[in-house]
Write a structure and sequence with these properties.
By secondary structure, this protein is α+β, with helices and mostly antiparallel strands. The protein is 26% helix and 21% strand. Strands 7-8-9-13 form a 4-stranded antiparallel β-sheet, with no helix packed on it. It has a 3-stranded mixed β-sheet with strand order 1-5-6. A hairpin with a 7-residue loop joins strand 3 and strand 4. The N and C termini lie far apart (66 Å).
Protein backbone atom coordinates (compact mmCIF):
# COMPACT_ATOMS: atom_id res chain seq x y z
CA UNK A 1 0.00 0.00 0.00
CA UNK A 2 1.24 3.47 -0.83
CA UNK A 3 2.28 5.52 2.18
CA UNK A 4 0.02 8.47 1.38
CA UNK A 5 -3.14 6.37 0.87
CA UNK A 6 -4.90 8.18 3.72
CA UNK A 7 -4.19 11.55 2.10
CA UNK A 8 -5.32 10.40 -1.33
CA UNK A 9 -8.62 9.12 0.07
CA UNK A 10 -9.73 11.65 2.68
CA UNK A 11 -7.79 14.88 2.24
CA UNK A 12 -10.18 16.54 -0.20
CA UNK A 13 -12.37 19.63 0.22
CA UNK A 14 -15.82 18.79 1.51
CA UNK A 15 -18.73 19.26 -0.85
CA UNK A 16 -21.47 21.79 -0.26
CA UNK A 17 -21.88 25.53 0.01
CA UNK A 18 -19.11 27.48 1.66
CA UNK A 19 -21.51 30.31 2.48
CA UNK A 20 -24.02 28.93 4.96
CA UNK A 21 -26.91 31.20 4.01
CA UNK A 22 -28.91 32.73 6.84
CA UNK A 23 -27.81 30.20 9.46
CA UNK A 24 -25.65 32.51 11.55
CA UNK A 25 -28.15 35.40 11.79
CA UNK A 26 -30.84 32.94 12.88
CA UNK A 27 -28.59 31.39 15.53
CA UNK A 28 -27.91 34.85 16.93
CA UNK A 29 -31.56 35.93 16.87
CA UNK A 30 -33.92 35.93 19.89
CA UNK A 31 -36.12 33.26 18.22
CA UNK A 32 -33.54 30.52 18.63
CA UNK A 33 -33.72 28.04 21.47
CA UNK A 34 -31.44 27.92 24.47
CA UNK A 35 -29.76 24.68 23.37
CA UNK A 36 -28.89 24.24 19.70
CA UNK A 37 -27.15 21.51 17.78
CA UNK A 38 -24.17 22.28 15.59
CA UNK A 39 -26.23 21.99 12.37
CA UNK A 40 -29.33 23.89 13.44
CA UNK A 41 -30.06 26.89 11.25
CA UNK A 42 -27.87 25.84 8.33
CA UNK A 43 -29.94 24.90 5.31
CA UNK A 44 -27.06 23.70 3.13
CA UNK A 45 -24.60 21.69 5.24
CA UNK A 46 -21.41 20.30 3.78
CA UNK A 47 -20.70 16.63 3.22
CA UNK A 48 -17.65 14.40 2.93
CA UNK A 49 -16.23 13.77 -0.54
CA UNK A 50 -13.80 10.89 -0.15
CA UNK A 51 -12.08 9.53 -3.22
CA UNK A 52 -12.52 5.81 -2.60
CA UNK A 53 -11.39 4.56 -5.99
CA UNK A 54 -7.69 4.17 -4.95
CA UNK A 55 -8.81 2.01 -2.02
CA UNK A 56 -11.05 -0.07 -4.27
CA UNK A 57 -8.29 -0.62 -6.83
CA UNK A 58 -5.83 -1.61 -4.11
CA UNK A 59 -8.26 -4.15 -2.65
CA UNK A 60 -8.83 -5.72 -6.06
CA UNK A 61 -5.06 -6.16 -6.41
CA UNK A 62 -4.96 -8.11 -3.13
CA UNK A 63 -7.13 -11.03 -4.29
CA UNK A 64 -5.91 -14.56 -3.51
CA UNK A 65 -4.10 -13.27 -0.41
CA UNK A 66 -4.99 -14.03 3.22
CA UNK A 67 -7.41 -11.40 4.47
CA UNK A 68 -5.56 -11.11 7.79
CA UNK A 69 -2.45 -9.90 5.97
CA UNK A 70 -4.45 -7.47 3.84
CA UNK A 71 -6.12 -6.12 6.98
CA UNK A 72 -2.74 -5.73 8.69
CA UNK A 73 -1.43 -3.65 5.80
CA UNK A 74 -4.52 -1.48 5.97
CA UNK A 75 -3.98 -0.84 9.67
CA UNK A 76 -0.30 -0.03 9.07
CA UNK A 77 -1.05 2.52 6.36
CA UNK A 78 -4.09 4.13 7.99
CA UNK A 79 -4.01 5.42 11.56
CA UNK A 80 -7.26 4.39 13.26
CA UNK A 81 -6.55 6.80 16.12
CA UNK A 82 -7.16 9.66 13.70
CA UNK A 83 -10.90 10.31 13.37
CA UNK A 84 -10.66 11.30 9.71
CA UNK A 85 -8.51 8.34 8.72
CA UNK A 86 -10.55 5.90 10.82
CA UNK A 87 -13.57 6.84 8.70
CA UNK A 88 -11.96 4.90 5.83
CA UNK A 89 -12.63 1.61 7.61
CA UNK A 90 -16.36 2.34 7.44
CA UNK A 91 -16.16 1.89 3.67
CA UNK A 92 -14.27 -1.42 3.73
CA UNK A 93 -17.50 -3.41 3.91
CA UNK A 94 -18.73 -1.64 0.76
CA UNK A 95 -16.02 -3.40 -1.24
CA UNK A 96 -15.34 -6.62 0.72
CA UNK A 97 -17.96 -8.99 2.12
CA UNK A 98 -16.55 -10.35 5.38
CA UNK A 99 -19.70 -12.09 6.65
CA UNK A 100 -19.73 -14.97 4.15
CA UNK A 101 -20.84 -18.40 5.40
CA UNK A 102 -20.61 -21.98 4.16
CA UNK A 103 -23.84 -23.94 3.69
CA UNK A 104 -23.47 -27.49 2.35
CA UNK A 105 -20.23 -26.60 0.61
CA UNK A 106 -21.58 -23.43 -1.05
CA UNK A 107 -20.68 -19.87 -0.11
CA UNK A 108 -23.59 -17.70 1.03
CA UNK A 109 -23.46 -13.95 1.64
CA UNK A 110 -25.89 -11.44 3.19
CA UNK A 111 -28.52 -10.23 0.73
CA UNK A 112 -29.54 -6.66 0.17
CA UNK A 113 -29.96 -4.37 3.14
CA UNK A 114 -33.76 -4.65 3.13
CA UNK A 115 -33.84 -8.44 2.67
CA UNK A 116 -32.22 -9.44 5.98
CA UNK A 117 -31.38 -12.93 4.73
CA UNK A 118 -28.51 -14.92 3.25
CA UNK A 119 -28.33 -15.67 -0.48
CA UNK A 120 -25.94 -17.84 -2.52
CA UNK A 121 -22.88 -16.00 -3.77
CA UNK A 122 -23.77 -16.89 -7.37
CA UNK A 123 -27.02 -14.88 -7.00
CA UNK A 124 -25.47 -11.78 -5.44
CA UNK A 125 -25.09 -8.88 -7.87
CA UNK A 126 -23.53 -6.51 -5.32
CA UNK A 127 -20.61 -8.51 -3.87
CA UNK A 128 -17.39 -7.98 -5.82
CA UNK A 129 -14.90 -9.32 -3.26
CA UNK A 130 -15.44 -11.67 -0.33
CA UNK A 131 -13.44 -13.44 2.35
CA UNK A 132 -13.80 -17.20 2.02
CA UNK A 133 -15.22 -18.51 5.32
CA UNK A 134 -13.13 -21.68 5.17
CA UNK A 135 -9.70 -20.47 4.08
CA UNK A 136 -9.82 -16.77 4.96
CA UNK A 137 -8.55 -15.85 1.48
CA UNK A 138 -9.75 -12.70 -0.27
CA UNK A 139 -11.44 -13.86 -3.48
CA UNK A 140 -13.35 -12.22 -6.34
CA UNK A 141 -16.96 -13.07 -7.11
CA UNK A 142 -16.69 -14.88 -10.44
CA UNK A 143 -20.48 -14.98 -10.79
CA UNK A 144 -20.86 -11.20 -10.58
CA UNK A 145 -21.55 -10.44 -14.25
CA UNK A 146 -24.02 -13.30 -14.58
CA UNK A 147 -25.84 -12.20 -11.42
CA UNK A 148 -26.04 -8.61 -12.71
CA UNK A 149 -27.51 -9.77 -16.00
CA UNK A 150 -30.04 -11.93 -14.17
CA UNK A 151 -31.08 -9.04 -11.92
CA UNK A 152 -31.38 -6.73 -14.93
CA UNK A 153 -33.62 -9.27 -16.68
CA UNK A 154 -35.80 -9.60 -13.56
CA UNK A 155 -36.20 -5.83 -13.31
CA UNK A 156 -37.03 -5.59 -17.01
CA UNK A 157 -39.68 -8.28 -16.63
CA UNK A 158 -41.20 -6.66 -13.55
CA UNK A 159 -40.92 -2.96 -14.34
CA UNK A 160 -40.08 -2.89 -18.03
CA UNK A 161 -36.75 -2.14 -19.65
CA UNK A 162 -35.58 1.24 -20.85
CA UNK A 163 -36.71 0.36 -24.36
CA UNK A 164 -40.24 -0.45 -23.20
CA UNK A 165 -42.78 2.09 -24.41
CA UNK A 166 -44.59 3.37 -21.34
CA UNK A 167 -48.11 4.82 -21.48
CA UNK A 168 -48.29 8.58 -21.79
CA UNK A 169 -51.15 8.88 -19.29
CA UNK A 170 -53.27 6.53 -17.13
CA UNK A 171 -56.00 4.74 -19.05
CA UNK A 172 -58.29 1.72 -18.76
CA UNK A 173 -59.15 -0.61 -21.61
CA UNK A 174 -62.91 -1.14 -21.71
CA UNK A 175 -63.13 -3.22 -24.88
CA UNK A 176 -61.39 -3.58 -28.24
CA UNK A 177 -62.37 -0.09 -29.41
CA UNK A 178 -63.08 1.79 -26.17
CA UNK A 179 -60.67 3.19 -23.59
CA UNK A 180 -60.99 5.54 -20.63
CA UNK A 181 -58.21 8.14 -20.43
CA UNK A 182 -57.53 10.42 -17.50
CA UNK A 183 -56.56 13.89 -18.71
CA UNK A 184 -55.96 16.78 -16.30
CA UNK A 185 -57.86 14.99 -13.54
CA UNK A 186 -60.94 14.21 -15.67
CA UNK A 187 -61.88 10.90 -17.29
CA UNK A 188 -62.72 10.72 -21.00
CA UNK A 189 -64.14 7.87 -23.05
CA UNK A 190 -62.09 7.47 -26.23
CA UNK A 191 -63.33 5.45 -29.22
CA UNK A 192 -60.51 3.98 -31.30
CA UNK A 193 -60.43 3.14 -34.98
CA UNK A 194 -57.81 1.30 -36.99
CA UNK A 195 -55.83 3.17 -39.61
CA UNK A 196 -56.54 1.61 -43.03
CA UNK A 197 -53.70 0.36 -45.16
CA UNK A 198 -52.89 2.09 -48.44
CA UNK A 199 -54.11 0.22 -51.52
CA UNK A 200 -51.79 -0.17 -54.47
CA UNK A 201 -49.97 3.02 -55.31
CA UNK A 202 -52.57 5.27 -53.70
CA UNK A 203 -51.45 7.73 -51.07
CA UNK A 204 -52.47 6.89 -47.54
CA UNK A 205 -55.26 9.26 -46.46
CA UNK A 206 -54.67 11.04 -43.13
CA UNK A 207 -57.16 10.72 -40.27
CA UNK A 208 -57.76 13.22 -37.49
CA UNK A 209 -56.99 12.06 -33.96
CA UNK A 210 -59.37 13.96 -31.67
CA UNK A 211 -57.35 13.21 -28.53
CA UNK A 212 -53.95 14.24 -29.85
CA UNK A 213 -55.54 16.90 -32.11
CA UNK A 214 -53.47 16.14 -35.18
CA UNK A 215 -53.64 14.20 -38.45
CA UNK A 216 -52.14 10.72 -38.36
CA UNK A 217 -51.20 7.99 -40.82
CA UNK A 218 -49.56 4.60 -40.53
CA UNK A 219 -46.19 6.21 -41.20
CA UNK A 220 -46.52 8.70 -38.36
CA UNK A 221 -48.30 11.85 -37.37
CA UNK A 222 -47.92 15.58 -37.19
CA UNK A 223 -46.58 17.12 -33.97
CA UNK A 224 -49.46 16.42 -31.55
CA UNK A 225 -51.04 19.18 -29.53
CA UNK A 226 -51.43 16.70 -26.67
CA UNK A 227 -49.76 13.46 -25.72
CA UNK A 228 -47.20 11.45 -27.63
CA UNK A 229 -46.67 10.93 -31.34
CA UNK A 230 -46.29 7.20 -30.67
CA UNK A 231 -49.62 5.37 -30.80
CA UNK A 232 -48.14 2.55 -28.72
CA UNK A 233 -47.50 4.98 -25.88
CA UNK A 234 -50.94 6.58 -26.18
CA UNK A 235 -53.23 3.59 -26.74
CA UNK A 236 -51.12 0.50 -26.06
CA UNK A 237 -51.07 -0.66 -29.70
CA UNK A 238 -49.92 0.72 -33.05
CA UNK A 239 -51.88 1.88 -36.13
CA UNK A 240 -54.92 3.22 -34.25
CA UNK A 241 -56.26 6.71 -33.64
CA UNK A 242 -58.93 8.35 -31.50
CA UNK A 243 -62.03 8.67 -33.67
CA UNK A 244 -64.21 10.24 -30.99
CA UNK A 245 -64.27 11.08 -27.30
CA UNK A 246 -66.66 12.29 -24.62
CA UNK A 247 -66.25 13.36 -21.03
CA UNK A 248 -67.46 10.91 -18.40
CA UNK A 249 -69.62 11.87 -15.47
CA UNK A 250 -68.67 11.30 -11.86
CA UNK A 251 -71.38 8.70 -11.29
CA UNK A 252 -70.34 6.74 -14.37
CA UNK A 253 -66.70 6.71 -13.31
CA UNK A 254 -67.50 5.63 -9.75
CA UNK A 255 -69.76 2.83 -10.93
CA UNK A 256 -66.85 1.22 -12.77
CA UNK A 257 -63.69 2.33 -10.99
CA UNK A 258 -65.11 2.74 -7.49
Amino acid sequence: MREDMDKVIVERPRGGWRVQGDGRPWRNSPERGSHLGMRRGYQRPKWLSENLQPLKRWLHKQVHRPWDKVWSELCEGIDRRNTVQAHIFVHIDQFVERQAELHEGEVWVPGRMWQQRMVPLRESASVELFVHPGTGILLPNRHLQRAKQQRKAEWAERYGSRDTVRPYAPYHVIDAVTQWHRIDGAWWEVRLARLPEARGGEAEPPHYDVLRRCFVTRKGCEPPAFGSADAQAMYGRPHVYAQGMRRLGRVEVRSRLG
